[in-house]
Amino acid sequence: MGRWEPDAAGRLREAAMALYAERGYDGTTVAEIADRAGVTARTFFRHFADKREVLFAGSELLQEHMVAALAAAPSDATPMTAMTTAVLASADFFDDIRREYSRRRAAVITSTPELRERELIKMATLTTALTEGLLARGVPPDIAALAAETGVAVFRVAFERWINAPDDVPIIDVLQTTLKNLAGLT
Amino acid sequence: MGRWEPDAAGRLREAAMALYAERGYDGTTVAEIADRAGVTARTFFRHFADKREVLFAGSELLQEHMVAALAAAPSDATPMTAMTTAVLASADFFDDIRREYSRRRAAVITSTPELRERELIKMATLTTALTEGLLARGVPPDIAALAAETGVAVFRVAFERWINAPDDVPIIDVLQTTLKNLAGLT
């Protein structure tokens, strides 16, 4: 304790997820999460603001990554092509190891209204960040907002489908199918 | 007081909106809203569960109306055509008189995190209801979720644009432009 903990954040995340599944989110304390992970509460708070943020710290990284991909798209790309680059970049985050974690995380979130709200806020924040990214590319405001909303809609639908898909289906395939479905819809 | 009040709900809504603008949402009580509207608190509670619901009671009516329009679309309509019917039906709710109310409502919601969250929840509930409506039409789950998310995205972007548009632009025009923009994007 007190010394440097290799991957303490990863162990805290695992411990939190196990406890949320066993006792429910509301019935779990930070002290119990730290204890299960074999670290002190102080170490917990070095990594996460509270027990909710254990579940949402990844959302900010995902957002930064998608916004960076959007900014890196060729300057002559159409708004939707640039948005597609950002949507497909989300696949870097969700490999097969992450799928099982994502499934358990989704189960906890679905069963807790406070967390469902938090997830909606994170998605709204992602939409705003992508809208701003499109505006920075010179896309007109109405088109930027629509392309960002549509891109996040594709991500949400694909992500939900992926966590319910068989284990050998990579998220990139589901994202591409969903983008194709969108083109077919409109 | 105590007797039947013609359009008490409308007056309560107006009173609430005026007070939220003057004192802020958090600084306003149900008693003050009832007093300003010239009714008793008991009358308030006959119409609204709490001061938040004054702002959101309309969301349920909008949802019912859009879901009914979706169900009434011709049975051979494509998922997106049916969804478009539902999206355009929202225009029945937002005439020119409603615009000023909608603008003031949006200002209150934007300035209060609790209300922003509530609005996100209402939009997520609308998306779920429209997804279910598409499923009932025999649309496959992945397509239903995507079409519903996309339809709600169009509604949100158009609504936001409409409340910021000049007074002579009807919402139906903005909805149609936004649907055209969507088709152009993808």
Automatic annotation (TrEMBL), chains A, B:
DNA-binding region: 29-48
Keywords: DNA-binding, Transcription, Transcription regulation
Pfam families given in the database record: TetR_C_14, TetR_N
InterPro entries reported for this sequence: DNA-bd_HTH_TetR-type_CS, Homeodomain-like_sf, HTH-type_TetR-like_transc_reg, HTH_TetR, MftR_C
Stored Gene3D superfamilies: Tetracycline Repressor, domain 2
Coiled-coil residues: none
Domain HTH tetR-type: 6-66
Taxonomy, superkingdom: Bacteria
Protein name: AcrR family transcriptional regulator
Organism expressing this protein natively: Kribbella aluminosa
Phylogenetic lineage: Bacteria, Bacillati, Actinomycetota, Actinomycetes, Propionibacteriales
